[in-house]
Design brief:
202 residues; alpha+beta; 4-stranded antiparallel beta sheet; 8 helices
């Protein structure tokens, strides 16, 4: 699990603002609720819901700038799905909870092509193993929740060329980081979302 706890340039969980928020989220869990559930599950739920609800999805809210690192997401309170997953992983790792990255390939407009990657997280919960969550932010038609062991992600597959990649990665895909670093406005990013075909998924 060590690789799923590391800090990096993108998952910069040693940043003082992230450490402060992670500790706040953990302290909020020291209650009767925490007594009834495992410590890690309670903090994971609290962290997931905070990122889902408090960080605005860039294209939903048409917010700039395009963020990438966890600290950038927290500073600007906005991010694409990928960036929000970076912050959630950082908050979890700051509380010594292993977290990784998962991806789907989805239709951008729910009508088939064009397609793009969609990023979310997997959290290691001792009682069930890897559990996937999607903190991209809810809206009409999107209702992602933390309900282990049942998975309730933001999106399900609808088309033959969509795909749910099963791997749990320790670091974000380079193509995702490159896209986030290459664009500065939400609409520029929206028209250049990263994609990957089936043969490249590994």
């Amino acid at each position: 699990m060590e690789q799923y706890l590391k800090a990096s340039e993108v998952i910069d969980w040693h940043h003082s603002d992230i450490v402060e928020l992670a500790h706040q989220l953990a302290s909020d869990c020291e209650s009767s609720t925490a007594m009834a559930n495992s410590w890690s599950k309670t903090i994971a739920k609290q962290s997931f819901e905070w990122v889902r609800d408090q960080i605005h999805h860039s294209s939903d809210y048409q917010m700039n700038p395009v963020t990438c690192s966890a600290s950038e997401v927290l500073k600007h309170k906005t991010g694409y799905c990928f960036a929000k997953s970076h912050l959630l992983a950082a908050l979890l790792r700051a509380n010594h909870i292993p977290a990784g990255f998962c991806y789907q390939r989805l239709s951008i407009d729910d009508q088939g092509a064009p397609y793009s990657l969609h990023g979310f997280n997997a959290i290691y919960l001792p009682e069930i193993g890897w559990y996937r969550v999607d903190a991209r932010g809810n809206k009409p038609g999107v209702d992602a929740q933390f309900t282990p062991p049942q998975e309730q992600l933001a999106f399900s597959l609808q088309f033959a060329k969509e795909e749910d990649f099963p791997a749990v990665l320790a670091e974000p895909l380079p193509i995702v980081v490159s896209a986030l670093r290459s664009h500065t406005t939400w609409d520029e990013m929206f028209h250049n979302l990263p994609d990957i075909d089936h043969n490249q998924k590994d």
